[in-house]
Amino acid sequence: MSRTSRPVRRLLGIAATVFSMTAAGQALAQAPITYKVIGQPAATGLVQKNYERPFFEEFAQRTGLNINADYKPVDQLGIKDTEQLRVMKAGLFDIVSLRVSQNSRDEPTLLGLDLVGAAPDYATARKVYEAYLPVLDERLQKQFRIKLLGAWPFGPQILFCKKPVTSLADLKGLKVRTYDQNLAKFMESVGASPVPLSFTEVHQALSLGVVDCAITGPSSANSSGWPEVATHQYGLGVQMAMNAYGIGLNQWNKLSAEEQAKLQAAFTKLTDDIWTYSEELTADAMACNAGKDSCEMGKKYHLIDSPLQDADRQVLTEAVAKISVPTWAEICDKANKSCSADWKATAGKVIGIE
Questions:
Q1: Does the record bear Ribonucleoprotein in its keywords (predicted)?
Q2: How far lies 23's CA from each of 13, 65, 67, in Å?
Q3: CB proximity list for 76: less than 8 A, separation 6 or greater
Q4: Which end of the chain is less crowded, N or C, counting CB atoms within 10 A of the terminal residue's CB?
């Protein structure tokens, strides 16, 4: 071997080392990262099962990003659904399927998305959502370092009772499961005694007589077997049970502008699809709960479907200005000085309350 071959061999060795280091670096850069995700309770039913879970199980494909999702429903994590903001702020999870009303004690601004009586139908709820989301996004970024990516409703929250209930007047003296302060105040106004319970506690509470009635969406009630322990459903939608998707700002800020756009587009499609599906589910579940032949997606039960009273619709409409907004504003303005003013300039404006 000539003397000149040694430098050549040395250069070749260096080149091989550099190549292998470069290849390893590229492989490392291309390795997918994994987001830890808090999902909706599995007990809530078909939205979680048919839309949310598949989205996160196919996260990389749905978003077009080199990111996977470790998705766990909140009721399988040992975390209460009222603690989602706290664990997100602590950086324990990257994305949350946020239960709006349930977390409103930690951030009252959230409840502006779902005040009692403010959005009695899907069309109105959509207007409130689109007007108010930027306000809510700014607040959650500031207080909890969470960037909102969209929101959707489970649907009208109605009464399920184990006693005959044909109007709001029949609730006088009855114990009713509620899940936020605004709803509790409205129940008190019609003579009921509000009892705060988590969703997973309700079936047993109805069965044992801890409560006489409970409020949730028709589909969630169907999926969780509430009609097994109730006798009547009364379809006055007091709220829409809004839920929102949020990502921790630390993860959001690590994404490029192009990646952020892809992620946002994927969540916008998901939430739009759920809005449509939720409305279909509500109609079907109302029929299923009452054992009607039009039932297709849920389980048939035999609840008595009490006809909706026009007088109760009026009571609910009047409650927005008389009860919902004042009760909420008093609490929210203490935590967030511009809270009610921001709501009136956005959500309030689209429903005629300023």
A1: no
A2: 15, 21, 20
A3: 42
A4: N
Reading the block at residue 319, the tokens are 């409650």
List own/partner pairs for 332-337 with CB under 8 A and 24 or more apart: 332/108, 332/109, 332/111, 332/112, 335/107, 335/108, 335/109, 336/108, 336/109, 336/139
Question: Are 121 and 217 found together in one domain?
Answer: no
Domain membership flag for residue 14: no
Beta strands in 44-191 (DSSP E): 67-73, 95-99, 146-153, 158-161, 175-178
Q: Which of 224, 219, 112 is nearest to 155 (CA)?
A: 219
DSSP string across 195-239: EE--GGGHHHHHHHTS-SEEEE-HHHHHHTTGGGT--EEE-----
Residue with tokens 């449509």: 276
* pLDDT score at 42: 85
Q: What is the mean pLDDT, run by run of 10 residues, along the chain of 354 residues?
A: 52 48 44 95 86 98 98 92 94 96 93 94 95 97 97 96 96 95 94 93 96 95 95 96 96 98 98 97 96 95 95 95 94 96 96 88
Rounded to two decimals, the pTM is 0.85
Q: Locate 210 and state its tokens.
A: 């801890």
In this structure, the answer to whether residues 202 and 217 fall within a common structural domain is yes
21, part of any domain: no
Q: Which of 327, 281, 321, 247 is nearest to 48 (CA)?
A: 281
Domain assignment of residue 185, given as a range: 158-239+292-350
Number of H helices, E strands in the chain: 15, 11
On whether residue 196 sits in a domain, the answer given is yes
Name the burial class of residue 150, with classes exposed (0-12), middle (13-18) and buried (19+) by CB atoms within 10 angstroms of its CB: buried
Is 48 part of a structural domain of the chain?
yes
Say yes or no: 61 and 77 in one domain. Answer: yes
Cβ-based neighbours of 335, under 8 Å, separated by 6 or more: 107, 108, 109
pLDDT at residue number 309? 94
* pLDDT for 181: 86
Are residues 189 and 259 both part of a single domain?
no
Q: Are 143 and 181 in contact (CB under 8 A)?
A: no
Q: What is the CATH number of the domain that holds 337?
A: 3.40.190.170
Nearest-angstrom CA–CA distance, 343 and 325 = 9
Domain count, the chain: 2
* Residue 224 sits in the same domain as residue 307: yes
